[in-house]
Amino acid sequence: MTNGPGPVGPVGKGPNGERPQRPGMPLGAQTTEYTGPYVVLLDQREPDRGMEALRSSVGIASVERVRGAEPGAAERLGRPDVSVVFDELGVAVVDVQPDQRHALVTTAEAEPTIIATEPERVVYASVITEPQRTLTGFSPTYRSDDDEVTRHTRAELATSLGPAWDERNTTWGLQGIRANWSHLTGSGVKVAVLDTGVDTDHPDLTGCVEATASFVAGASVEDGHGHGTHCVGTVAGPAKPAAAPRYGVAGEARVLVGKVLSDQGVGSDGEILAGMAWAVSQGARVISMSLGAPVEPGELFPQTYENVARRALRRGTVIVAAAGNESRRPGFVAPVGRPANCPSILAVAALGKDLGTAFFSCDAINGEGGEVNIAAPGVDIFSAAPDGTYQTMSGTSMAAPHASGVVTLLAQAHPDASAADLSARLRSGAHPLAQPAADVGSGLLQAP
Fold first, then answer.
1. Catalytic residue among 83, 95, 145, 195
2. Is 1 a residue whose pLDDT tops 50?
């Protein structure tokens, strides 16, 4: 990935035709990284009209259409001389020369079939700590918080550890959300995990992975990072793993794995949106995204992701995303990152073993869409790792797949429910917590 030269700000049209303002204050030491191309949201009734307007006025690169996960889709997305349209959700990634960016903005404002145009951003896996790898078998650890000593005083740790969870049979995360008490398994429900891929040979996961696709140019779906395998395991690891405690929420779900982040845990908006379009085309009832990018205080939610999420909801798909890890509580609390900050995407905060808000978990600081919707276990989460092993990781990345797994259980229990109804059921069934809603939303999610 390379950062494009300072792009013209995002263009979007609100319900009353207003244009959002882009605040200029950076978020702490975080910087927004751009790739160069633009993401364009089209009117699905007339997508060709919008692209033709850009072709005639901006001189965009040759346009190629992608439906589902066609062979070579990732390679086309990665070519600088090609603009790609994902027909499933009416979104395009457009290659624009720097001297044509103002023309693109002007055209987008004038053409009614172009709903929003935003510079494409870099997106990251939402993990906060380096994994603790378990190569063979499982050695239960009840308070593996040693890595936090460098960040917090021993007194702070003493008050945050809470009760010891017995993880010999079931991870503390599954106990916290009561998944071990549910009779539901996610049977027959498709859930897409968009991440760094998966270890397709992991003995715990070979039975649940139904389809795979890579949207990272030059890369297979195999997971060279570990983040994606961990998330897939949390969503759908088996009820009785051979060499570990139970760590998967919905062990009989049908998992669609989309590689949208590189083996370094880095991707782009275009790769994410391509994966989302593929997941919807495959009939996913849930899309789990443990990824994102930081936003500035006061920054509006991205209209492209929001409109794509609405289109997915109408197709019956619930989108779940990690709230972000930029906070350093108690001294600094950051706003929910994108795309979790969209009103139509469920933003999941992370909890520690004491069910307190994790020090890194982002908060509902910004306006509409910047809320935290629900909270889930996200500290010291044990799950699958590449090469048939296991690892413990922390982050809102680990919280999001717990929520995705529970939505999968709800979809099994209510097969005719709309996506909006599944989302509402998830929030209404949460266990209230003492923290404010800005931290944890409706509370600790609970399995039905």
1. 195
2. no
